Amino acid sequence: PVSSFLPYSGLTRERSEVRPRAGWMVMGERGRPSALDVCRVLAVFLSLFPAVSLQCKILRCNSEFWASTSNAGPEEEFCTALRAYNSCVRRTARTCRGDLAYHSAQHGIEDLMSQHNCSKEGPTSQPRARTPLPPPPPPLLPDSQERSDGPEVCHYERSLLRNTAPPNYTHCGFFGDPHLRTFGDDFQTCKVEGAWPLIHNKYLSVQVTNTPVVAGSLATATSKLTIIFKNFQECVDQKMYHAETDELPAAFADGSKNGGDRHGANTLRVVEKVPGQHVEIHAKYIGTTIVVRQVGRYLTFAVRMPEDVVNAVEEGDSQDLYLCLHGCPANQRIDFRNFRARAAEAHGVGRTRSAAGAHGFTYQTAKAKCKERLPVEDLYFHSCVFDLLSSGDINFTMAAYYAFEDVKMLHSNSKRYHIFEKDAVKKYTVPLPLLTALLFRDYFLKM
């Protein structure tokens, strides 16, 4: 399944009477959102997800709407073009359902209709191109450390009401084959092949794409990551960060390193720690820090976020599929404890000829290798053992190591750094005979 990045409204904390609408575009003359900016966002999505343009033809709808609204015109004409755009998008529903660009267009249209008081009923004349084309947008302001960090509302902790309790910060991590530590400190191992949402709230959305690690294994790892920071009041413009294997940029998709042209732009910044290996994104206006790493061929993700930001969701918006909040669906979970027990049993009875599995590590050699970086036998250690047995990729040792280092940097409770099996609250219900057979197929064939 593919998640949609939905529009949003303002903060739920009592900061301001201003409740901005969805951050699809920059406001132009007479408060009209620029259609050019709408289409730029969609165009970026299309470049990231080429299958959309090949299968669901959302590009054609986007292009027609862009052409028909290039210059400012009467409000009635804009609504007519918007209804035509809506009809075009609806016709793609069969092939586009579940695609990111399709859902972005859907919710963007709803928001534009609301902003312009457009009726859903009315003429839907075919879009027609106008000339001349709009001038290119003005160049982005240069990033500057000296630039003002903006008003108090753009500093999460400063904006909280006085005499209130300090915010409760939570942590989510996603790494390895993959392993998920939720905001509630539940630790899971999942399959989740394809595109899945990690986070979705009023302020940002995070989506990962996971691909199989080796043929014949249910284990996957993250090869792509997309983060959208939605625009907020006078603080930041909408920004997107996209990373994939061997491309971990030190800037947002538009080339900037901060939140744009607003007064609080520097409360959102991309900081490159190790070129091509470690990037941090600091979003002070929502009290959030994100760490993205490339370890071997795959990406890891870690975040520190205030609890009220985690739970700031749109009314009526189902959060069931957002992994960092609710964990992986039951049918996507892998009980690697059961897997480990089977691996240990295979080694313990002396069946060493094939107990190394398909990828070169025995249970004991995997434990020894993981022990070099993770001396405490917690769930990070055991996830490392699982990854080595399932993939044979030594880089997963470092993925587990850095995931734990990120916990120490981002988790607010030092007593909760380690998670042990006895701490696991949720029960894993997915049996593993198929996974075990795949990972130890040589062993089962030679018994």
Automatic annotation (TrEMBL):
Nuclease listed as a keyword: no
Protein name, entry field: Uncharacterized protein
Polar residues composition bias: residue spans: 115-128
Family: Belongs to the repulsive guidance molecule (RGM) family.
Membrane-protein topology: Lipid-anchor; GPI-anchor
All copies of domain Repulsive guidance molecule C-terminal, residue ranges: 168-412
Subcellular location field: Cell membrane
Pfam family, any one: RGM_N
PANTHER family on file: REPULSIVE GUIDANCE MOLECULE A, RGM DOMAIN FAMILY MEMBER DRAG-1
Gene Ontology molecular functions: coreceptor activity
Composition-biased stretches (Pro residues): 132-141
Region (Disordered): 115-151
Gene Ontology terms describing biological process: BMP signaling pathway; positive regulation of macromolecule metabolic process; regulation of primary metabolic process
Keywords assigned: Autocatalytic cleavage, Cell membrane, Disulfide bond, Glycoprotein, GPI-anchor, Lipoprotein, Membrane, Signal
Gene Ontology CC terms: plasma membrane; side of membrane
Domain Repulsive guidance molecule N-terminal, first and last residues per copy: 56-120
